[in-house]
Design brief:
Blueprint (H helix, E strand, L loop, with lengths): L10 H7 L5 H15 L6 E5 L7 H6 L3 E6 L2 H14 L4 E4 L11 E6 L9 H14 E10 L6 H4 L5 E7 L2 E13 L4 E12 L2 E12 L3 H11 L2 E7 L19 E6 L1
Length: 260
Amino acid sequence: MNIKPNCYDYPRYYELAFAFRDLAHEVDVIQQTIQQFARVDTHTVLTLACGPSPHLLELSARGLQFVGLDINPAMLAYSKAKAQQAGIAAKFYQQSMTAFQLEQPVDYILIALGDLYVQSNEELDSHLSSVAAALRPGGLFLLDWCIQFEPANMFKSEAEMWEVKQGDLHLKCQVRMQPFDHPNQLFEEQLAIEVQEGEQCLSLASHSVKRAIYPQEFLQLIKMMQQFEFIGWWNNWTLDEPLTRQTQTIFRPITLLRKR
């Protein structure tokens, strides 16, 4: 059996594969949420499953201290090198997002691009408890694409495909999400990146198991925990588009909680 190298062990290619995001706009929205909803002076932002830390430079340019947490050592080494090269005093932790501890609490926590890696109710509870312990009262917790509002559209048989070109580097990317355990709401996320850089060719792949989280069960869980306030959810990374029953197409929805 031919086992392909893991996408997450190649941070530069992984970062470029998802470089279609408007990071400046996303940090604009983060700052808007701080201005409108935070009840604490916000100076530190923790990104969970930070990967190659795409928001690092933009957050730091706005005067916010970056804190990153990831379980993959290659991603952390890449992020540390990026921070060092830019002269940024960022902090990094190599821990699992399902159960983590920080040296001191932060003011804002972010999970980007659906990177909420939990596989059971117990792991979800542990994750939220870790977030509550790591976040100062009045601080915000923003989840990007972590709630499955449209499972019928999300779990398709065909893969989402796109290409990225930068100089002599060409990436062909695809991601597929397939449910395989409906009672436990589990699905497999399959990511593949075909790399051609000059004469070098490389095939990367990763497989992650995640638990689907649906809107109303999420609200009920937050209510039962009594550690967060639900602030709202919006479509397509803009506070001008709150999610309502009239919302037709949902893309990259964001959900916002505030620590009590």
